[in-house]
């Protein structure tokens, strides 16, 4: 018996059997995606059309079903929820990109958090926030209870415009959108730009939550080796040429986790290469206010054409008052507004945006930043000295911010060290959560503002001794 | 010349030419997705393997590129951003699901908004919010400046647990996750459960932003006709059997836009049908606090097994203090936490959650709701009488809430009416923005709390006269 194309129907039968066997053995579970037609044809050494027929027959029998634009899935009564974690269980699971976030956010108050990504509460401008809250108690009813406009507080957007103008970017009001947080800003951009399977370039190492976020978008994440001057340019240009990535997501000012700063030459070549290959750059400026002076910035060189700038006030003002922003081409902002309405209805709380605008407007914020920078410079020196006493050495001394990216002595593995330290109430940030290539196992990221307690060093010393 | 399978290579050439012609004529633009192999094979009357070869050749030439799991796309230097709107331009564009949101959110202060989905600012408990803000001025530093835990304020989650217990659902603390808003709650669930091309059932009519949100998830949206007793059961059961939808998204308490309430029989059969077909239900309870007494609820019948409850305080407390919640199976909540970290870092601002918890904790909220219900009952009667004088009749008289879903006289079309009224500073909500099948053109949704100004009726009367 043959089909219309003269191919033995037996081959189709064999392909159908192969799938059924995989389902029976749970190699393919309900909700799992079947291999692509091409890949499975190669696996079975048959033509793609044989697989198309086999899938068609299984679909007709209700064993698998097609999802438009996304392939075939094994049917079954259980929905297949998206699992981002590499293992189950919040606390016991592997050291994946969520490990540091969950450990730090849900730490009990007695825990020490040299691995976390924020300043201690007592370093934050709490008196200014209290004053702002009292002032809000006298605000108009509309600020207190309405949704606010789709772009967010005009007062805060004007302050951002003025700041960008100082840096040399002429931005108009329709190029700024306020969002619920810096992370939400990047997420909205990913929703606009990415489809499952797209390629995105990040630095290796990069902020671990870029990895988690991109995984949620089901894209292919490729790392570019990061040097003290910025991304390795030869590797970056090669990746752009071979992988046609849609996005390059980076922090250029006080890079997370390394604390590095772009050189002007690197910045220039990154912008040029991205333009040549049609790659959009998302530049996360969240640590920019910690810089002693403005370092080269991709968004400034590019004038917000192919570079999108995002930022927030979580690191310098308050992480509790959630508010971020996107600065980009006006036509992209227009589409981002629709996406924000669809997925969040409105961006930041008007109360939050008003509070932030009130604090930024005065001279207070500038002097608060100057204080923070002074205090951090001192904490950085102290932390580096104390870590040196354990043989832990910074990869470079950053010009600002609160991170020190450090190499452990004697090829020690940081994930094991972190698993051990957490039992002693010290939360560390092991290198590989930042590394797409998993090549940073010998590193730890330290937050110098969270190392005042002697116990951090004691626990580290014990953990390093502990074999 | 033939290929290895004995098929003339000429057919592949012809398929390649056909694609190139479409690209040359801009029928396929850079960033557009190519037809599926199967569909294009049918279009050209060739075998699928011919198309697989043609696409492979075009890919090798860099004309198109595969995105893993999502088909082939035309390459080009411009990225293909996701466009949710049916037409460009915020104000002038068609009456799509974003029309009401954007008109209402960005309305100038003199505009009247009988089409919007919230109470006037002066109906909201502003004094309680002011008091709450002053109290926050005395809160711990950690509340004011830290991110807070991954699940959100324990105080607010405890209050929700107590409320659910009163309604007869035994929920544990690990079954509740706080989110930045009700919309974000549904969005997170969609991210967990849906993949592009999946089928989702909504009521027809339904809240317009469900349509916008689901469009952002690139799923297939199917409407079930809505009756005064809830979804049409025969149609619902048929849809579940034929379409295998992953989700059914609905508001059962004071349905938006109709104001209808589920009957116990409908509620029971909806839950049973969803369980039988493996469809998860998302029950948006955002208007529940406006009910005079608890109506049948899917989450209660089901005990939060396959039904996920979401809600927020935007309608009764403040839309500016953004805070929503998800109540669901603990294993789903665990995955939703990862998704929330990845895409937003944390959920609601601790300041916002603390403020909401403070207001809910006292006896004030209960008496505020009683006041609102009394005031709304009066406004509902008045609005219905005044609309009747124009021949505009409610589809049913709701038991609570602020909506009246009304039919226009003489088969008048509400989109044209809304386009006209907006020029006179009155923002209406035309029926088809709520309708997947576009069968509600004769309806308008009125917000009875936003109709005190005589000008609403004057503009409506003029618009109805105006041909």
TrEMBL record, chains A, B:
<keyword id="KW-0804">Transcription</keyword>
<protein>
    <submittedName>
        <fullName>PLP-dependent aminotransferase family protein</fullName>
    </submittedName>
</protein>
<dbReference type="InterPro" id="IPR015421">
    <property type="entry name" value="PyrdxlP-dep_Trfase_major"/>
</dbReference>
<dbReference type="GO" id="GO:0030170">
    <property type="term" value="F:pyridoxal phosphate binding"/>
</dbReference>
<dbReference type="InterPro" id="IPR036390">
    <property type="entry name" value="WH_DNA-bd_sf"/>
</dbReference>
<dbReference type="InterPro" id="IPR036388">
    <property type="entry name" value="WH-like_DNA-bd_sf"/>
</dbReference>
<dbReference type="GO" id="GO:0008483">
    <property type="term" value="F:transaminase activity"/>
</dbReference>
<dbReference type="InterPro" id="IPR000524">
    <property type="entry name" value="Tscrpt_reg_HTH_GntR"/>
</dbReference>
<comment type="similarity">
    <text>In the C-terminal section; belongs to the class-I pyridoxal-phosphate-dependent aminotransferase family.</text>
</comment>
<keyword id="KW-0805">Transcription regulation</keyword>
<dbReference type="Pfam" id="PF00392">
    <property type="entry name" value="GntR"/>
</dbReference>
<keyword id="KW-0808">Transferase</keyword>
<dbReference type="GO" id="GO:0003700">
    <property type="term" value="F:DNA-binding transcription factor activity"/>
</dbReference>
<keyword id="KW-0663">Pyridoxal phosphate</keyword>
<keyword id="KW-0032">Aminotransferase</keyword>
<dbReference type="Pfam" id="PF00155">
    <property type="entry name" value="Aminotran_1_2"/>
</dbReference>
<keyword id="KW-0238">DNA-binding</keyword>
<dbReference type="GO" id="GO:0003677">
    <property type="term" value="F:DNA binding"/>
</dbReference>
<dbReference type="InterPro" id="IPR004839">
    <property type="entry name" value="Aminotransferase_I/II_large"/>
</dbReference>
<dbReference type="InterPro" id="IPR051446">
    <property type="entry name" value="HTH_trans_reg/aminotransferase"/>
</dbReference>
<feature type="domain" description="HTH gntR-type">
    <location>
        <begin position="9"/>
        <end position="77"/>
    </location>
</feature>
<dbReference type="InterPro" id="IPR015424">
    <property type="entry name" value="PyrdxlP-dep_Trfase"/>
</dbReference>
């Amino acid at each position: 018996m043959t089909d219309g194309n003269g191919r033995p129907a037996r081959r189709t039968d064999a392909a159908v059997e192969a799938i059924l066997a995989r389902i029976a053995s749970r190699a393919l579970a309900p909700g799992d995606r079947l291999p692509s037609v091409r890949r499975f044809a190669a696996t079975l050494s048959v033509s793609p059309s044989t697989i198309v027929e086999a899938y068609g027959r299984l679909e007709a029998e209700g064993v698998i079903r097609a999802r438009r634009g996304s392939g075939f899935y094994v049917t079954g009564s259980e929905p297949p929820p998206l699992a981002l974690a590499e293992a189950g269980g919040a606390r016991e699971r592997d050291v994946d990109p969520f490990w540091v976030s969950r450990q730090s956010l849900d730490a009990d108050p007695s825990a020490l958090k040299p691995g976390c990504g924020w300043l201690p509460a007592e370093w934050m401008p709490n008196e200014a926030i209290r004053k702002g809250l009292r002032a809000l108690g006298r605000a108009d009813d509309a600020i207190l209870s309405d949704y606010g406009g789709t772009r967010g507080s005009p007062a805060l957007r004007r302050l951002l415009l003025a700041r960008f103008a100082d840096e040399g970017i002429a931005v108009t009001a329709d190029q700024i959108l306020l969002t619920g947080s810096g992370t939400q800003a990047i997420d909205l951009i990913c929703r606009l730009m990415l489809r499952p399977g797209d390629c995105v370039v990040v630095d290796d190492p990069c902020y671990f939550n870029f990895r988690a976020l991109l995984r949620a978008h089901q894209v292919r994440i490729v790392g570019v080796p990061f040097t003290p001057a910025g991304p390795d340019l030869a590797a970056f240009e090669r990746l752009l040429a071979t992988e046609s990535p849609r996005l390059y997501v980076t922090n250029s000012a006080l890079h997370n986790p390394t604390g590095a700063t772009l050189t002007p030459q690197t910045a220039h070549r990154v912008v040029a290469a991205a333009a040549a290959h049609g790659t959009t750059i998302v530049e996360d400026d969240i640590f920019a206010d910690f810089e002693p002076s403005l370092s080269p910035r991709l968004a400034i060189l590019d004038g917000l054409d192919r570079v999108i700038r995002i930022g927030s006030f979580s690191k310098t003002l308050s992480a509790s008052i959630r508010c971020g922003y996107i600065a980009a081409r006006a036509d992209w902002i227009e589409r981002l507004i629709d996406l924000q309405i669809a997925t969040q209805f409105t961006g930041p709380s008007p109360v939050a945006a008003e509070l932030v605008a009130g604090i930024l407007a005065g001279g207070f914020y500038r002097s608060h930043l100057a204080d923070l920078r002074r205090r951090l410079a001192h904490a950085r020196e102290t932390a580096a000295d104390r870590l040196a006493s354990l043989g832990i050495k910074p990869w470079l001394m950053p010009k600002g911010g609160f991170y020190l990216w450090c190499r452990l002595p004697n090829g020690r593995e940081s994930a094991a060290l972190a698993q051990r330290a957490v039992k002693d109430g010290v939360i560390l940030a092991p290198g590989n959560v930042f590394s797409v290539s998993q090549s940073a196992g010998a590193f730890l990221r330290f937050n110098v503002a969270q190392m005042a307690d002697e116990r951090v060093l004691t626990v580290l010393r014990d953990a390093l001794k502990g074999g």
